C-alpha cells in the first residue's frame, strides 16, 4: 500500500499565524515553495498561505504585507491527511475539496506536504488525469 508519507515532499515547515505576509514570502523564497501551512500558538494547523494569496488578497488590494499576518489570511477549515493514509484517501481529500496542496501530519506534527508535482511522480496517467479533472472543474 502506498501511503501519504511515501509520496509527500518531506521537510515542510510551518509559519506561525502571527508572522507577517512579507516574512511568509521570504520563507517561501528561501524554501523554494509556493505554500506554507500556518500554525497556531500550539503548532496546530490553522490554515495554508500561498504565494497567490499574498499577491491577490494583499498586494493587489493595496494592503501592506508587512502589516498583515498569516493568521489574517487563514480562512475556512484547513485540510490535512495522516502520514499513514492510503494514496486513495489522499486523492479523495484533495479532489473532494478541490485543493492542490495537502499537509501531511504524523503524531500531531507536520512531516510533509503533498502537491500536484508529488502526485505527478507517483500516480498513473489515468489517476493524474482524474485528479486534474476533479480539482480544476468549476462548480
UniProtKB/TrEMBL annotation:
This is CBS domain-containing protein. InterPro entries: CBS_dom (IPR000644), CBS_dom_sf (IPR046342), Diverse_CBS-Domain (IPR051257). The keyword S-adenosyl-L-methionine does not apply. Keywords: CBS domain. SUPFAM superfamilies: CBS-domain pair. Pfam families: CBS. The lineage of its organism: Bacteria, Bacillati, Actinomycetota, Actinomycetes, Kitasatosporales. Residues 8-65, 73-130 form the CBS domain. PROSITE patterns: CBS. The keyword Methyltransferase does not apply.
Amino acid at each position: 500500500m502506498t501511503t501519504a508519507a511515501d509520496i509527500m515532499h518531506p521537510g515542510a515547515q510551518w509559519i506561525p499565524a502571527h508572522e507577517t505576509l512579507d516574512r511568509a514570502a521570504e520563507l517561501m523564497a528561501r524554501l523554494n515553495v509556493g505554500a506554507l501551512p500556518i500554525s497556531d500558538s500550539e503548532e496546530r494547523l490553522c490554515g495554508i498561505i500561498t504565494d497567490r494569496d499574498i499577491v491577490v488578497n494583499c498586494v493587489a488590494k493595496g494592503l501592506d504585507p508587512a502589516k498583515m499576518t498569516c493568521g489574517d489570511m487563514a480562512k475556512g477549515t484547513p485540510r490535512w491527511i495522516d502520514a499513514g493514509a492510503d494514496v486513495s484517501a489522499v486523492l479523495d481529500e484533495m479532489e473532494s475539496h478541490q485543493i492542490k496542496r495537502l499537509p501531511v501530519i504524523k503524531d500531531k506534527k507536520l512531516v510533509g506536504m503533498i502537491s500536484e508535482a508529488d502526485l505527478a511522480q507517483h500516480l498513473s496517467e489515468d489517476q493524474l488525469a482524474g485528479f486534474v479533472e476533479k480539482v480544476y472543474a468549476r462548480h
